[in-house]
Amino acid sequence: MKALERTLTIIAFLILVSQTVRHAYMLWLEPRGSVLDKYDQPVKNEITNASSLDELVRRYDDAHKKAEEARAQRSNSDEGFDYRLQQKEPYNSERLLHDAITDWERRSKEIHEVRFYWAVGVVLFVLGILSYKKLNRWFGLTLLIAGFSEIIYWTSPTFFGPTREFDRLLGNKLVLSVISLLLLLVVIWLNRIFAEKQQAPAS
User: Fold this and answer.
1) Which residues make Cβ contacts (< 8 Å) with residue 122, sequence separation at least 6?
2) How many CB atoms lie within 10 A of CB 95?
3) Which of 35, 90, 115, 190 is an S-S bond match for 66, by CB 3.0 to 4.6 Å?
4) Which helix H or strand E contains 191, and what residues bound it?
5) How many CA atoms, within 13 angstroms, populate the side-chain half-sphere of residue 84?
């Protein structure tokens, strides 16, 4: 059993260390921006720099009102709607802000999922430690494997664009990955996974 524990511990440790380093790099060290950024539309910069969903909603309200006024003027002039207008203002800003709000809500949901399922993993971890020490080592090990599987899966890398919400997701995963590493070290220490058996002194 000790060989299995050591193998699983090494695998979990390698995964957690590599993804923690990756999260830290993506959050703090990865080069961002482009020489072409100055040519981007102002509304894209506003979306990227938005600090809250409410801020995006306020900007969308303004863009939506302008787009509705433009649609009303076109309907009064009996001109048919041209889909090429979607690339022009104010329709383009309305569409971009609408997509940004949808994207923000989707990522907020993902952050919630990461926190919830990571917490489930921690509960399984605690039950596993208690079972390992008090009830049955195999049952405890099973719970520990299930707990760390949840923890590792939900803190593993995902790939999105470099927006503020992405940074929040990375920040959450980085913090939870570091805590997960500490929990793994607790398991190693409590269960003496890498402890060598002391040889009996020669007579």
Assistant:
1) 147, 151, 183
2) 15
3) 90
4) none
5) 1
